[in-house]
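ARCHIVE RECORD
Type: protein–small molecule complex
Small molecule: magnesium ion
Source of inputs: curated submission
Record status: active
Notes field left blank by submitter.
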Amino acid sequence: MPTFEYAPAPESRAVVDIASSHGLFIGGEFVEATGGKPFKTVNPATEEVLSEVSEATADDVDAAVRAARTAYTRVWSRMSGADRGKYLYRIARIIQERARELAVLETLDNGKPIKESRDVDVPLVAAHFFYHAGWADKLEYASLGSNPRGIGVVGQVIPWNFPLLMLAWKVAPALATGNTVVLKPAETTPLTALAFAEICRQADLPPGVVNIVTGAGATGQAIVDHPGVDKLAFTGSTGVGKMIARSIAGTRKRATLELGGKGANIVFDDAAMDQAIEGIVTGIFFNQGHVCCAGSRLLVQENVVDEVLRRLKRRLGTLRVGDPMDKNTDVGAINSKAQLDRITELAGVGEAEGAERWDSGCDLPTSGYWFRPTVFSGVSQSSRIAQEEIFGPVVSVLTFRTPGEAVAKANNTPYGLSAGIWTEKGSRILWMADQLRAGVVWANTFNKFDPTSPFGGYKESGYGREGGRHGLEAYVSTGQETT
Ligand code: NAD
Ligand code: MG
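STRUCTURE (tokenized, with ligand):
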């Protein structure tokens, strides 16, 4: 199929001013780290170094936890919900005002298309703050139990795939319920979290309510291990989630874990085929497939698999892969060399295990980290590419004959984060949604996010929910309990 030639439509980089080095945000001030080894964050589309970032040591984490404790006892836990809400509304409005700058910064540091950071990530970030601002003075009415209030100091560790959005998922409910925060962004994408620190200052948020410490696994571990942290919220890999669960066992710390996934996107023969093809594309090629709830296993009813594969490949041939700053780009850069290596390795395993490999054959830029949208068909249930999370633009296609077989195959995974169903039959949607062991089930759509809707996993995809009224539960203590 011929593709239209599009002239380049580059977003301007001039809307952001990136400092050459960054400190830590502790107690409302940007401070120097006490001795960690600074590290560089790069633009994965060009390998250009964007900035040098501090590595927070255990001492820095201790200073951040102390600042958060002081802010909690002296200010934040004493403030009325209505007043906390005002700060959250203010933050939400500043995010909207600075939306373009934040979208450009996110795309430069992460590699995702500007179209997505501009139209999905940043608007959802603002929406999360607006939504939780609304709850701050209504916690009594949220069916959380009597006398709902904050727990204390919350330690939060987030991944690189939706850097600012994962920050919003963590910080907005924590603040709305009266907690203070020490947050660590991922080491490859720290810049929007540091911009958020500036936004906290701009909003006159009391010092110490939000503290941002940068660094890698060791810094995250220092947050997990700190005795002054009352609750942990982690989003990332299942491996690290298990380590966190082990390190806090026997302590009084609470935790919510949002981990990996291997979501099944299930297409029946009666599905509206054009919409289903778009849903498959959104399900696995959105954000280069770096999505924990991606529809990375495509289950297609056997009698339509040839048609689905033919249409899907034709559609993938029209995706524009390349410069994330171009407004026409559909698929951007892989976030890091390490992630590219992992995707490449698992794709090799898929081939070695006998699945049929196809990619769109599109041209790729010569510098940066890239992977072509890839389809594996004829994948068996036991294949590693059907079981393990690839976290890249790679879909594994399996077939089924009956709804029962679709459910059995969809549930045959250690994970349970998301699933999708494509069918015109309403009763089948309800039956399937009931049978699928997944935290989110989308019907005739995929990868739809909304702050009012709880999100989270079954089994090794973690525990606890984020978003909606349910998401507040993780951040409150009730009744007579004291901290
Ligand atoms: P990762 O687990 O390696 O890192 C996530 C975060 O944890 C980073 O900030 C990292 O620095 C930190 N970290 C690493 N080791 C740590 C330790 N020992 N103690 C404390 N913190 C530590 O994962 P990643 O490669 O950054 O992200 C990809 C993974 O995250 C995928 O498996 C994906 O499914 C998962 N993910 C899940 C969700 C969800 O909502 N369930 C969302 C996004 C990503
Ligand atoms: Mg980066």
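CURATOR ANNOTATION: The longest strand covers residues 394-400.
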